[in-house]
Amino acid sequence: MSIIPCTSILVTQFVFLVSLLSFKVTSSSRTEEESLIQWKNSLSSSSPLEHLGLSITLKTFAAGLALSAALPEPSWRSTSPKQASKERLPSLISVHFLISPASISASTTSTGRYHQQSPTYPRKIGQLKELQYLSLYNNSLNGTIPYQITNLQKIWYLDLGWNYLESPDWSMFSTMPLLTHLSFSYNELASVFPEFITDCRNLTHLDLSRNHLTGPVPDMVFRNLGKLEFLILVDNKFGGNISSSIGQLRNLQKLDLSANSFNSSIPGELGLCSNLTFLALAGNLLAGSLPLSLANLHKIEELGLSSNSLSGQISPHFFTNWTELVSLQLQNNHFFGKIPSEIGLLKKLNYLLLYNNILNGSIPSEIGNLGELIFFDLSINQLSGPIPPTMGKLTKLTLLQLFDNNLSGTIPLEIGNMRSLVTLDLNTNNLEGELPETMSVLNNLEILSLFANNFSGMIPRDLGKNNLNSKNVSFSTNSFSGQLPPRPCNSFTLELLTIQNNNFTGPLPDCLRNCSNLVRVRLEGNHLSGDISKAFGVHPNLNFISLSGNQFSGKLSPEWGESQNLTKLQIDGNKISGKIPSDLGKLPQLQVLNLDSNELIGEIPKELMNLSRMFSLSLSNNLFTGEIPRSIVLLTNLQYLNLAGNKFNGSIPKELANCKQLDSLNLSHNSLSGEIPSELGNLVNLRYLLDLSNNSLTGTIPSNLGKLAVLESLNLSRNNLTGKIPASFSSMLSLNSIDFSYNQLTGPIPNGNPFKRANYTGNSGLCGNAEGLNPCSSTSPTNSKSFKNKTVLIGVLVSFCGLFFLAFIVAVILILHPRFKHSKKNDPYEWQNWGREGMFTFSQIVKATENFNEKYCIGKGGFGSVYRAVLPQDQIVAVKRLSMLDSGDISTTNRLSFENESKILTEVKHRNIIKLFGFCFSKGFMYLVYKYIERGSLGKVLYGEEGKTKLGWAARI
Amino acid sequence: MERWMWIEATLVALAVLSVMRVGLVRGHSEGDALYTLRRSLFDPDNVLQSWDPNLVNPCTWFHITCNQDGRVTRVDLGSSNLSGHLVPELGKLEHLQYLELYKNKIQGTIPVELGNLKNLISLDLYNNNISGVIPPALGNLKSLVFLRLNDNQLTGPIPRELVGISTLKVVDVSNNNLCGTIPTTGPFEHIQLNKIHEALNSFENNPRLEGPELQGLATYDTNCS
Question: A758 touching B, CB under 8 A?
Answer without folding.
Answer: no
